[in-house]
Design a protein that fits this description.
GO terms for molecular function: copper ion binding; dopamine beta-monooxygenase activity. It is globular, with a radius of gyration of 14 Å. 29% of the residues are buried. The strands form 2 sheets. Strands 1-2-3-9-8 form a 5-stranded antiparallel β-sheet, with no helix packed on it. A 4-stranded antiparallel β-sheet has the order 4-5-6-7, with no helix packed on it. By secondary structure, it is an all-beta fold. The chain is built from no helices and 9 strands. It has a single domain, classed as Immunoglobulin-like, CATH 2.60.40.1210.
């Protein structure tokens, strides 16, 4: 479970590629494997994330009430061989493959790239989408 209130700027980022923009917050999710940046836009009531994962494939970020998969609101993305970014809004009702959110699409890719063995995707979502398959982000 990621509490966005308790994390501050982190200097130990392990990704070998720079984020697309400057963010207010960052954290190492797993040393030399996954890093996360984010900024909240209070006026728009949305949050912009950038996730870097040491893989050449799909990556995901989940937000859930108890920190596990059950009830998780998940954004899943990848960069194809032509450099196009794909992103899906998914939901996990249990510890199983998350289904595509069939209510509304609330996770939006902004841009992404694969470089030096890392996949980096910038995406955004409203803090509270009022969607039953989404979990509100409290900041």
């Amino acid at each position: 479970f990621l509490s966005l209130l308790t994390l501050d700027k982190c200097d130990g980022i392990s990704s070998s590629i720079s984020p697309f923009i400057n963010y207010k917050y960052s954290t190492v999710l797993q040393d030399n494997v996954a890093d996360l940046w984010w900024t909240v836009d209070d006026a728009e009531r949305e949050i912009t994330f950038e996730l870097h994962v040491k893989t050449m494939g799909w990556i995901s970020l989940g937000i859930s009430p108890a920190g596990g998969m059950k009830g998780a609101d998940i954004g899943v993305g990848w960069v194809d061989s032509n450099g196009n970014v794909h992103f899906q809004d998914r939901y996990a009702s249990d510890f199983a493959k998350p289904v595509i959110d069939n209510t509304t699409t609330d996770w939006y890719a902004i841009r992404g790239r694969e470089q030096n063995g890392w996949t980096a995707i910038q995406f955004k979502r409203l803090l509270d989408t009022c969607d039953s398959m989404d979990y509100p982000i409290k900041v």
